[in-house]
């Protein structure tokens, strides 16, 4: 795998995200995907990742902008930095009530890749900042 292939896989993953295409996101991940959620647990496997994608599509409408993608020369690791422009559509348990609030949030993610697909994604953003924005 090369740096170019890794960057293309990550870009395709986020292109699918921005299009609201969960199937397109799933096409970019391995069967044993490890999804490490910001300030949360670890989801392992395509089925749990698909459940997460379905939940996100109901609770949030998000577009990622200002995308910058990095990859190691051997294509086994990558990262992305972006700005989330979102709307909070349906209340998530344990979070403030959703009333269609909008938010803008800097975020990033780290990736492991194998055989041209994403095998780990770890997402980071400032949850306290998000809570502040949707609580205004």
Can you describe this structure?
The protein is 32% helix and 42% strand. The chain is an alpha+beta fold and 136 residues long. Strands 2-1-6-5-4-3 form a 6-stranded mixed β-sheet. Strand 5 (102-114) and strand 6 (117-125) form a beta hairpin. The protein starts with a helix and ends with a helix.
Please outline the helices and strands.
Layout: H1 3-18, H2 22-26, E1 29-36, E2 42-44, H3 46-59, E3 60-71, E4 77-88, E5 102-114, E6 117-125, H4 127-135
Parallel strand pairs: 1-6
Antiparallel strand pairs: 1-2, 3-4, 4-5, 5-6
Relevant terms:
136 residues, alpha+beta, Nuclear Transport Factor 2, Chain: A, 6-stranded mixed sheet
Provide the succession of SSEs.
Answer: HHEEHEEEEH
Whole-number count of domains: 1
Class from secondary-structure proportions: alpha+beta
Q: Which ranges are low-confidence, i.e. pLDDT below 50, for 5 or more consecutive residues? A: none
CATH topology tier name: Nuclear Transport Factor 2, Chain: A
Per DSSP, the total helix count is 4
Give the biggest sheet: 6 strands, mixed
What radius of gyration results from the CA coordinates?
A: 15 Å
Structure summarized in a few sentences:
The protein has 136 residues and is of the alpha+beta class.
